[in-house]
Design goal:
The chain is built from 10 helices and 9 strands. The N and C termini lie far apart (59 Å). The chain is α/β, with parallel strands linked by helices. The protein is 38% helix and 20% strand. It has a 7-stranded mixed beta sheet with strand order 4-3-2-5-6-9-7, with helices on both faces. Strands 1-8 form a two-stranded antiparallel ribbon. The radius of gyration is 21 Å and the shape is elongated. The protein binds S-adenosylmethionine (SAM). S-adenosylmethionine binds next to β1, α2 and β3.
């Protein structure tokens, strides 16, 4: 990047990767082949973008910062790069021909809402390789019973296989971030891991159960607007102890509860 490169904007999570060894490891994890379609969110100064192009990808890069977009247009004049200046949360992903991969070093402030948004598009995405806050990566892979087990764990594990590929230290970025990072590889499943009759109801139950982590399940769900008598009857029917806390339920138990309440 040149001397005219804009100063990093903290509000847009602009911590730029400067370590080419990490760039290579991200690209290796994504297993990019020639001609492959890749969506990059937040190309920034283009460290991943240039690597993706060198490996032969067709890249659609969505960047919110108009100054960075203008600089990238000048510095990477490739016919294989399609740059879009837009908020990645608002982008109409359904318009992208499938399948495609998502490769991104996400801005920290956006990682959780964007993950939920991308999970909605999972049927068209073959793999996501994402750099995230370490804590979010740990939530994504946390099994039931672990302290990081959360709504994000349940919803992501319902729809995808996820692994932490490697961790990245703060020194690999400029400016240096306040948190540690991890790269995850997320492969959407062809079907949800457990079958569920009504996915919207399942989501409401999971959110309700985690809404008051310290409360008993029946109380937490009653607080979330579910009729208490119906919740208690459903719990009795499937043999779940109503004094358990929501955060102790496995994916399969949440599914069973959702299907019973659906009835
Ligand atoms: N990919 C570059 C790298 O690895 O150095 C930049 C990563 S930086 C952590 C995050 C990038 O996302 C920044 O370029 C920032 O401007 C961009 N960004 C922030 N919010 C965004 C949004 N809502 N939509 C699209 N891009 C966004």
């Amino acid at each position: 990047m040149t001397e005219t490169t804009p100063r990093p904007r903290k509000s847009w999570g602009q911590n730029f990767l400067i370590d080419y060894n990490i760039q290579r490891k991200i690209l290796d994890t994504a297993e990019i082949g020639p001609g492959e379609r890749v969506v990059e969110i937040g190309p920034g100064r283009g460290i991943l973008t240039t690597g993706l192009l060198e490996r032969g990808a067709e890249v659609l890069a969505i960047e919110i910062d108009p100054l960075l977009v203008a600089t990238l247009r000048q510095e990477i004049p490739s016919p294989h790069l399609h740059l879009i200046q837009e908020d990645a949360l608002q982008y109409p992903y359904h318009q992208i021909p499938s399948p495609y991969k998502v490769v991104a070093n996400l801005p920290y402030y956006l990682s959780t809402p964007l993950l939920f948004r991308l999970l909605e598009e999972r049927q068209r995405i073959s793999r996501m390789v994402l750099m995230l806050q370490k804590e979010v990566a740990e939530r994504l892979v946390a099994p039931v019973g672990e302290k990081n087990y959360s709504v994000l764990s349940v919803m992501a594990q319902l729809y995808a296989d996820i692994r932490i590929a490697f961790h990245v230290s703060r020194g690999c970025f400029r400016p240096r971030p306040d948190v540690d990072s991890s790269v995850i590889s997320l492969t959407p499943l062809p079907h949800p891991r457990v079958s569920i009759r009504d996915e919207a109801l399942f989501r409401r139950i999971v959110r309700g159960a985690f809404g008051h982590r310290r409360k008993r399940l029946a109380n937490a769900l009653a607080d979330a607007g579910f009729p208490r008598d119906q919740v208690e009857a459903a719990l009795r029917k499937i043999g779940l102890d109503p004094t358990r806390r929501g955060e102790t339920l496995s994916l399969a138990e949440f599914a069973l509860l959702a299907d019973t309440l659906f009835d």
